[in-house]
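User: I'm preparing a small set of examples for a lab meeting where we compare how different chains pack in three dimensions. I only have the primary sequence for this one, and I'd like the structure in token form so I can line it up with the others. Please keep the answer compact; I'll paste it straight into my notes.
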Amino acid sequence: IIMVHPADEDNLKEEDSRSVDLKESTDVRSFLSYPAVAVTDPSPENAIRSVLNLYFSSNKDVVSEVMKKLLPFDPVALTSEIVLFHTHSEHAREPVILLGTHSQGILFSETDQKTYAFFILVSPKDQTSIHLQALAKIARIAREIQPQAQKDAEI
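Assistant: Understood. Below is the structure token output for the 155-residue chain.
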């Protein structure tokens, strides 16, 4: 998995932002719209906002809209340590799949289970079918990367 620390965002090139690949490949890099982001803030809101800000840096309207739709945070648990946030946006032109990680874990809900990786899916309002395909693909990827997420968290 390509990891980017938010402080390194200026070093990314335009080609680091890419369209979502929903083919059968399980290579996470080909699947993400942006390299995975290693967040350091343990606040759920700040963690999600920092990942969204990196991808949507030129369109703050999307960040505001998505944050409003995701609050209060009620993620879908994909595995014991990986969750998913998903919504539709009036401002999105194509589905966007982002991945954030946190080495210490984040508590997104009232449960005591820490989350070490979180996906964010933002799709255009008129692309329900592709949104559902992306949800299925994210679930498959999460099951495959769960052992790696546990290993990375231990380092």
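A couple of notes for your slides: The longest strand covers residues 96-106. Strands lie at 3-4, 36-38, 76-77, 82-89, 96-106, 115-124.

User: Perfect, thanks.
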